[in-house]
Amino acid sequence: MLGVWTLLLVAALPLAPQVFRVLEPGGFTSPRLEVHRVDDLVAQHFGYNPSSLVVIFRSPTPPGVGELLRNDDPRFLSEIDRALERVRLLDAVAGVSTPRENPRQASSDGRTAFAVVALRDLPQAYREVLPKIEAALQQTTLQQFITGAPVFYDDIQAVTERDLRRAEVISLPFAALALL
Known about the structure:
17% of the residues are buried. The protein has helices at residues 2-12, 19-22, 34-46, 74-84, 126-136, 149-179; strands at residues 52-58, 93-97, 112-119, 143-148. It is of the alpha+beta class. It contains six helices and four strands; from the N terminus they run αααβαββαβα. It has a four-stranded antiparallel β-sheet. The protein is elongated. 45% of the residues lie in helices and 14% in strands.
């Protein structure tokens, strides 16, 4: 019996590196669910994507220390436009809404505002889209933070993959010992 298991293990070793290509991360939803099909149809027919990114812009100077660039200042809005200039040109971006178009996207404290980046790709493509948007976002004098559902899912995915690998490394010797 031990010989048979050893032969099976040796025979399976060449297939081990291919496991990561066959298995996909995720599992949060099933494409067979009706809600998933509705999201696909709405995205297909109306160009809407429920996964939008939010880019938060904040004046780094605290009040009372130097000049505070307020979010209603045309320079603040110009900095936002400059930061998002290349993001608007990406194929994956359907549109960008800033405080210039929607003044409600500016905070009442005068230091913070946000822009909404509507994505054209389906929500499942966030792992390819996020690095492109991060690379296209230009640095300005304002602090910038990217958030939204795609960032949340990317973080969950990274943590889950790391934890699964750690669990496999820890449990594999015990499983082998139990089999022996």
